[in-house]
Specification:
Length: 369
């Protein structure tokens, strides 16, 4: 009888495993198809195509969650197939850890960067000087909203925020610049804050926003020709690298927390093998879900920025710091690097306000004079 009970349990486990496996396989298929289709339509935000993209975006999030959960259950059930029990538990925990690190982590982050809504509400805030609302029209149609503080010294700077943030995330930067007389344009990337469009954190999808910001500053009567710069923080820095490289009208740039997403960028940051594998999966999946081609490498783009002045800000002592050391080397003598070993990512202004003011304002005063 014990054998029959055990056999019945094994049969039920086998059936359950089969159902879980079928669920994981089906959800993975839905994720692959909806992800690729959503990536192809990611720039659509109106009409039938926009509605279809919203449906596909929802399917991507749901199917990814189901596929990862079902696959994780399968991994945990490995312990029932191995003997002896201590070995089974050890192997299962090792497999579960690897699955979480190499599969779940890059998959969740890729979906977050390309598909999850990350809008944060924009509320009024004091920038230390009079500001005016701005609406920028991009080449493909989405309207980008922001604020502009008029220039008192003939120079102006566009400040670009990070992932999942909006213009309020760089309000402290704007206050500092305005206090020193700079015109300041801070805006919400498409899909963020009050701007049109779907949420995405792929730098290639946000280039039109940077181009619209440049066009606006060039049209301002208070801004003199040749005195326009950019400050990019985290995602904003990744956007600015490519925008400034493409358009020589940007005369100087401050890039904070930039690491890039190409194989060349990963080689520059010298990650350990496990991190390299995870980043490769993240960037590859992100490009599929975001419908973008492999990006040009940051080292190549930074070479194109030279000999225009460039200030690089990095934090910590690992991959970000090493990547920016390589960027400085590639840019040559017109690039400066300020590393804050104890700072968190993209937190230079909060970590050392006086040092930030000295480095950044001093740099801009020289570069945009």
């Amino acid at each position: 009888r014990a054998r029959r009970i055990g056999g019945g349990r094994a049969a039920r486990d086998s059936g359950a495993m089969s159902r879980v496996a079928r669920t994981a396989l089906a959800a993975t298929g839905v994720f692959a198809v909806s992800g690729a289709a959503s990536g192809a339509l990611i720039d659509e935000y109106g009409g039938i195509a926009g509605a279809l993209e919203w449906v596909l975006r929802t399917l991507v999030v749901i199917s990814a969650a189901v596929a990862l959960a079902a696959a994780f259950v399968l991994v945990l059930r490995l312990r029932r197939r191995l003997r002896p029990r201590p070995l089974a538990w050890a192997a299962t925990m090792l497999a579960a850890t690897g699955f979480l690190f190499f599969v779940v982590q890059p998959s969740v982050f890729a979906v977050y960067l390309t598909h999850l809504p990350t809008r944060r509400a924009v509320h009024d805030t004091d920038l230390g000087a009079a500001k005016q609302p701005v609406t920028l029209t991009t080449a493909s149609g989405p309207r980008v909203h922001g604020w502009y503080v008029p220039s008192r010294n003939g120079a102006a700077v566009a400040v670009m925020h990070g992932t999942g943030s909006n213009r309020l995330g760089v309000a402290d930067h704007a206050r500092l610049l305005a206090r020193h007389g700079y015109g300041v344009l801070l805006f919400d990337f498409r899909g963020h804050g009050e701007s049109d469009g779907r949420s995405t954190s792929l730098p290639s999808a946000l280039q039109e926003d940077a181009d619209a910001a440049l066009a606006y500053l060039r049209s301002r009567p208070d801004v003199r020709a040749g005195r326009i710069g950019a400050i990019g923080v985290s995602l904003g820095g990744e956007v600015a690298v490519h925008a400034v490289a493409r358009r020589p009208e940007w005369r100087a740039a401050v890039l904070e927390g930039v690491q890039g997403g190409s194989p060349a960028d990963m080689r520059a940051s010298k990650p350990d093998p496990a991190s390299y594998a995870t980043l490769t999966a993240l960037y590859g999946l992100g490009r599929v879900l975001g419908g973008s081609a492999p990006p040009a490498s940051n080292p190549d783009q930074i070479e194109r920025i030279a000999p225009r002045p460039l200030l690089l800000l990095s934090s910590g002592q690992s991959t970000e710091a090493r990547a920016n050391e390589e960027y400085q080397r590639r840019a040559g003598r017109t690039a400066a690097l300020w590393n804050l070993p104890a700072a968190r990512h993209a937190a230079a202004l909060r970590t050392d306000p006086a040092g930030y003011e000295r480095h950044v304002i001093g740099f801009l005063d020289r570069a945009l004079r």
